[in-house]
């Protein structure tokens, strides 16, 4: 069993819809949770990060962490075709090297005009 | 923001030759850098953790003699793929961490697409 599980998709939504992404994990030591966006053949770009449980909002993006369920989510409101990309969840254990991340498989999102 | 620059973005080399990839943190000092490999439509696979001034720590199954990592300064780490073979063709990405503050996020370079012919 992988430490971080993420449905690879693809997930296709019409423009303007809400995109809902999620990951589950098994390692209870994870404390930092991140979402990255990756366009084809580019490096991942950090979108959101959260520490421990809770919600965080930044513009059209909302990240949620439920440590009791070992479940994290990312919501993208008013989706645009430019949001079409692969979204990777990542998490880290504070006892590990700073910046050492465990990634999900990535979910490919396609927003259709 | 934190900027990480990776060079080259694309390289084609002949089988048996070596290729060096550079990863630089432009506006912060990176005590730790990481090297990943990514296959098409797959997630990032951590290859090694690079700490400034010390030997890299390689993940299980990664050949340290094939993938040489040097982290000579707080802003530069290099990955050298030695005696490259076609199966080494992949997308290589580095990331860097400030190693301070209250978050564990890492910042990624643009990636290097290596093709071995």
Brief digest:
Chain A is mostly beta strands and 113 residues long. Chain A has strands spanning 4-6, 11-14, 19-25, 32-38, 45-51, 54-58, 61-66, 71-76, 85-92, 102-103, 107-112.
Can you give a write-up of this model?
The complex is a heterodimer of chains A (about 110) and B (about 120). With about 110 residues, chain A is mainly beta. Chain A has no helices and 11 strands. In chain A, strands 2, 4, 5, 9, 10 and 11 form a 6-stranded mixed beta sheet that branches. In chain A, strands 1-3-8-7-6 form a 5-stranded antiparallel beta sheet, with no helix packed on it. In chain A, a hairpin with a 2-residue loop joins strand 6 and strand 7. The model of chain A has no long low-confidence stretch (mean pLDDT about 95). With about 120 residues, chain B is mainly beta. In chain B, about 0% of the residues lie in helices and about 50% in strands. Chain B contains no helices and 11 strands. In chain B, strands 2, 4, 5, 6, 9, 10 and 11 form a 7-stranded mixed beta sheet that branches. The radius of gyration of chain B is 14 Å and the shape is globular. At the A-B interface, strand 4 and strand 5 of A face strand 5, strand 9 and strand 10 of B.
Provide the fold topology.
The complex is a heterodimer of chains A (113) and B (117).
Chain A: E1 4-6, E2 11-14, E3 19-25, E4 32-38, E5 45-51, E6 54-58, E7 61-66, E8 71-76, E9 85-92, E10 102-103, E11 107-112
Parallel strand pairs in A: 2-11
Antiparallel strand pairs in A: 1-3, 3-8, 4-5, 4-9, 6-7, 7-8, 9-10, 9-11
Chain B: E1 4-7, E2 10-13, E3 19-25, E4 32-38, E5 44-51, E6 57-58, E7 67-73, E8 76-81, E9 90-97, E10 107-108, E11 112-116
Parallel strand pairs in B: 2-11
Antiparallel strand pairs in B: 1-3, 3-8, 4-5, 4-9, 5-6, 7-8, 9-10, 9-11
């Amino acid at each position: 069993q992988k430490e971080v599980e993420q449905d690879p998709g693809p997930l296709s939504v019409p423009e303007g819809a809400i995109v809902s992404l999620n990951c589950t994990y098994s390692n209870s030591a994870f404390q930092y949770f991140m979402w990255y966006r990756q366009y084809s053949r580019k490096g991942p770009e950090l979108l959101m990060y959260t520490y421990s449980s809770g919600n965080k909002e930044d513009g059209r993006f909302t990240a949620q962490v439920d440590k009791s369920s070992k479940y994290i989510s990312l919501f993208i409101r008013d989706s645009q075709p430019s949001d079409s990309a692969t979204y990777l969840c990542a998490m880290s254990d504070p006892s590990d090297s700073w910046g050492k991340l465990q990634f999900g498989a990535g979910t490919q999102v396609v927003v259709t005009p | 923001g934190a900027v990480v620059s990776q060079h080259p973005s694309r390289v084609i080399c002949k089988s048996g030759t070596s290729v060096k990839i550079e990863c630089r943190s432009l506006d912060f000092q990176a005590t730790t850098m990481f090297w990943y490999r990514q296959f098409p439509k797959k997630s990032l696979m951590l290859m090694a953790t690079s700490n400034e001034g010390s030997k890299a720590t390689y993940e299980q199954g990664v050949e340290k003699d094939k993938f040489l990592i040097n982290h000579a300064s707080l802003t530069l780490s290099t990955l050298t793929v030695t005696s490259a073979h076609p199966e080494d063709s992949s997308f290589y990405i580095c990331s860097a961490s400030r190693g301070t503050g209250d978050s564990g996020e890492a910042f990624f370079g643009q990636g290097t697409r290596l093709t071995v012919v």
